[in-house]
Amino acid sequence: ELKVEQNPLFLSMQEGKNYTIYCNYSTTSDRLYWYRQDPGKSLESLFVLLSNGAVKQEGRLMASLDTKARLSTLHITAAVHDLSATYFCALAEYQLIWGAGTKLIIKP
Amino acid sequence: DAGITQSPRHKVTETGTPVTLRCHQTENHRYMYWYRQDPGHGLRLIHYSYGVKDTDKGEVSDGYSVSRSKTEDFLLTLESATSSQTSVYFCAISGTSGTDTQYFGPGTRLTVL
């Protein structure tokens, strides 16, 4: 059975701190997506990681992919309140297989 | 932003009534999807389409049907709505492959009383 597991599912942190969200998966796919969802809003594509060792960065967010470990990470550097959202990873198989999402609250 | 609209954006209906949600795209993308999002369940795929008149079931298709008679429109129908179908419904589109980046519509909040 295909599985995509995110952890933590909920994270509350202070501004200025660093943290990492983990996305583990159970197949050998080499394409993985990260999305962001603000409360009450739709989902927005953040990153697509296309191969082993891929790293993408935008602002305070950096995503990486390790296909051998079947692991992707989303690292937040010096968090700011505006990054509060729910973050989803999605694995590309014949279609996208979604993680449950990580709700991130960043307190001023 | 990808041109995707959903209608209606909000709907309240009663158990047993039929409901149709519409997704319209202006991007000429081949793939279209319907998801539902519920607390504790993340995103769950209901149905998807890979071309005009070509559709397939997702993981939670029971109680739902879809139709795609034009590239730009994908309809989701609840033949007889139940309270368990109260949810937020998202339409998404992607280009040439089922594993391409998906772009999401604004969502429809459906309440079944």
Task: Compile the SSE list and pairings.
The complex is a heterodimer of chains A (108) and B (113).
Chain A: E1 4-7, E2 10-14, E3 19-25, E4 32-37, E5 43-49, E6 55-58, E7 61-66, E8 71-76, E9 85-92, E10 96-98, E11 102-107
Parallel strand pairs in A: 2-11
Antiparallel strand pairs in A: 1-3, 3-8, 4-5, 4-9, 6-7, 7-8, 9-10, 9-11
Chain B: E1 4-7, E2 10-13, E3 19-25, E4 31-38, E5 42-51, E6 54-57, E7 64-70, E8 73-78, E9 87-94, E10 103-104, E11 108-112
Parallel strand pairs in B: 2-11
Antiparallel strand pairs in B: 1-3, 3-8, 4-5, 4-9, 5-6, 7-8, 9-10, 9-11
Q: Helix tally of chain A?
A: 0
The N- and C-terminal alpha carbons of chain B lie at a distance of 34 Å
Radius of gyration based on Cα positions of chain A: 13 Å
Principal-axes geometry of chain B comes out as globular
Main sheet: strands, sense, barrel of chain B: 7 strands, mixed
Helix content of chain B: under 10%
Average pLDDT of chain A works out at: 94
Helix count of chain B, per DSSP? 0
| Helix fraction bin of chain A | under 10%
The major β-sheet of chain A equals:
6 strands, mixed
- Please count the beta strands of chain A (DSSP E, at least 2 residues each): 11
Order of helices and strands of chain B: EEEEEEEEEEE
Largest interface: A-B, 19 and 18 residues
Q: What class would the helix/strand composition of chain A place it in?
A: mainly beta
